[in-house]
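User: Can you model how iron/sulfur cluster sits in this protein?
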Amino acid sequence: MHAVGPEYGFGLYVHWPYCTRICPYCDFNVYAAKDRDREPLVASIVDDIHAHRAKLPDHPKLDSVFFGGGTPSLLTPQQIERLLSAAQESFGLKSNAEISLEANPNDVLTSDIVDWSRAGVNRLSLGIQSLDDEALSFLGRDHTGRDARQAVERAQKQFDNYSVDLIYARPGQTMEAWQQELSETLALGAPHLSLYELTIEERTAFGKRAARGDLVPMQEDDQADLYDLTQEVCEAHGLPAYEVSNHASAPTYQSRHNHIYWASGDWIGVGPGAHGRLTINGQRVATEAAKRPADYKDAKAPGTLELTRQDTATEFLAMALRPTSGLDLQRFETLFGRSIEAETLSNLIDQGLAQHDQNTFRLTQSGRLMADYIASLLVPYE
Ligand code: SF4
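Assistant: Here's the modeled complex, given as structure tokens:
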């Protein structure tokens, strides 16, 4: 038994890099869609999926496929179907595989979403971001609060399993306003919510505005208050957190694909700039596809990097502390050959940031707020 690898889940991430317009906070590998011919890129991604099979002859069938981006709801149902057929032909999909598509509200309103189901999609992730028109305009989104509500209603008629994304901790957002917006969103009835605090990255349009002093990010303490409020409101509505930013009404609605990341399973990343993690003959390998679509189409294979045991252990910890299922200490010991210092663990427990239950170490609500920092404290060095 290995400590990481496909026995902890095996997924395929497909990155579709185009968006109708670029949001000012976005730090992803994205490009304006314009009137591009999408076919050559779809064909390159299909080839990439098949090329991965040649390198991974013993990997099992896929547990999940995730179409992310970018805006993969700009793909036609036929293109989605072709990409899924490539996954099916090369690796095979488990009969209950989770097939997620990130979708923009406007695409949900204007596409024939029944065709997304027919193509094989069984989970939608809706990029609503807010129900408030002013906030949506600040975030540079091209939909209104009304569009967002209608998109959720439309999605829920077709998909039992769907998620709504919101961005909070926006500059000037009050506790009352967020409580109201979150409660209204919960009332729409989605079984899964992803709630992200707005982060301002340097190289984005917001980052440049912040550097000029034209945008003042929310203070960390205020963000923490909103985070606590978020946990309270979601729990009261029956959607407790099962991970730092993710909430579900029942385990069946938790994202299986994301669980593969948190569990240090294996995933293939295809499409421009996509990252993957693969375990080949016991060696953990990071892959990164060429970022620009033109380079991706020309590339014969993604860049690969063999991860050291230290790198693998660092990633393992950072990922395992995020979900409420927690860190399997025995697995960590198998992976790293040594356990985490008992004193470090008990200090975190004494501070109310973590709990220890048999072989599992999990963060409390206050601990989850600083999951990355805690992970950095636990990493032992070789
Ligand atoms: S739609 Fe999503 S991926 Fe595209 S630019 Fe906006 S935030 Fe980025």
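A couple of observations from the model: The first helix runs from residue 39 to 55. The pocket of iron/sulfur cluster is lined by residues 19, 22-23, 26, 28, 30, 69-71, 127 (CB under 6 Å).
User: Helpful, thanks.
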